[in-house]
């Protein structure tokens, strides 16, 4: 089964060191929460990821600060890099049978129309327990997004049929809303406060309950909690 954990935010210029720290936190949390998804290694050893490049063969990237700094600096030295768009990095790894994880992020820029993002795709056996809420909370803490979710293809298809436009705020089976969005939730909305960011985590629906997700999306949109950032964007969160 494939599920996707995502976070999105507006312009937020950041240094390579700041981005490396966010990446390091994310990779550490993935190794802790999804041990079956990682490559064989000794106790306490960092995972070795595959660095997927825009062109050319994949290369190895150990999950340590020096390797991440080098990869991010290399991305910024490419001819097509722009400090406005941000710095992209895409990593993947595989562990036990039917376990794979891919992480991609575009961050550190100041675009006026394109959201910055972190996307974690987890492929796991259908019977496996995947800590989706913990993964979304980890994304919220590491990247401080404006909004985020845990979703899958069925949910995304249903939301698009309901009028959702790619790039606009959305919730999936689980949702994260920044503090500004949380303040616009309906009074009876059930949400867990995420103290480190000021936002909230919401359990929207169980896997397969696509209709519940669509109804929650419509209700939150009507309440203003899923209002898109004004374009051109001048802030990272509502």
Looking at the chains present, what oligomeric state does this protein adopt?
Answer: single chain
Broad structural category = alpha+beta
Overall 3D form = globular
Low-confidence parts lasting 5 or more residues at pLDDT below 50? none
From the alpha-carbon coordinates, what is the Rg to the nearest angstrom? 18 Å
Share of helix, binned: 25-40%
Largest beta sheet: what is the strand line-up?
3-2-4-5-6-1-7-8-10-9
Chain-averaged pLDDT: 94
Task: Describe this structure in a few short sentences.
The protein is an alpha+beta fold and 238 residues long.
Question: How would you explain this protein's 3D organization?
Answer:
- The structure is a single chain.
- The protein is of the alpha+beta class.
- It is built from six helices and ten strands.
- The protein has a ten-stranded antiparallel β-sheet, sandwiched between helices.
- Helix 1 packs across helix 2 (65-76), helix 1 runs antiparallel to helix 3 and helix 4 packs across helix 6 (210-223).
- It is globular, with a radius of gyration of 18 Å.
- The two termini are 33 Å apart.
Features:
238 residues, globular, ten-stranded antiparallel sheet, alpha+beta
Q: What's the SSE blueprint?
A:
Elements lengths: L1 E8 L6 H18 L14 E4 L7 E4 L2 H12 L10 E8 L5 E8 L8 E8 L8 H12 L3 E5 L1 H9 L12 E4 L1 H4 L9 E3 L4 E5 L6 H14 L15
Antiparallel strand pairs: 1-6, 1-7, 2-3, 2-4, 4-5, 5-6, 7-8, 8-10, 9-10
């Amino acid at each position: 089964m494939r599920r996707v954990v995502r976070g999105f935010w507006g312009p937020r210029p950041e240094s390579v060191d700041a981005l490396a720290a966010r990446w390091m936190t994310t990779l550490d949390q993935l190794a802790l929460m999804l041990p079956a998804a990682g490559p064989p290694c000794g106790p306490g050893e960092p995972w070795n990821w595959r660095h997927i490049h825009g062109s050319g063969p994949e290369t190895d990237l150990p999950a340590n600060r020096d390797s991440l700094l080098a990869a991010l600096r290399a991305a910024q030295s490419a001819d097509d890099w722009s400090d406005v768009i941000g710095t992209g990095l895409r990593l993947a790894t595989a562990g036990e049978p039917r376990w794979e994880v891919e992480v991609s992020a575009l961050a550190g820029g100041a675009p006026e129309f394109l959201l910055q993002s972190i996307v974690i795709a987890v492929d796991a056996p259908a019977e496996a327990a995947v800590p989706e809420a913990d993964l979304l909370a980890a994304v919220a803490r590491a990247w401080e997004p404006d909004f985020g979710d845990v979703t899958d293809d069925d949910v995304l298809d249903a939301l698009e049929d309901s009028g959702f436009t790619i790039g606009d705020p959305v919730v999936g089976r689980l949702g994260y809303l920044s503090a500004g969005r949380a303040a616009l939730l309906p009074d009876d909305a059930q949400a867990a406060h995420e103290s480190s960011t000021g936002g909230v985590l919401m359990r929207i629906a169980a896997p397969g309950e696509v209709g519940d997700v669509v109804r929650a999306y419509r209700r939150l949109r009507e309440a203003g909690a899923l209002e898109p950032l004004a374009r051109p964007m001048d802030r990272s969160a509502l």
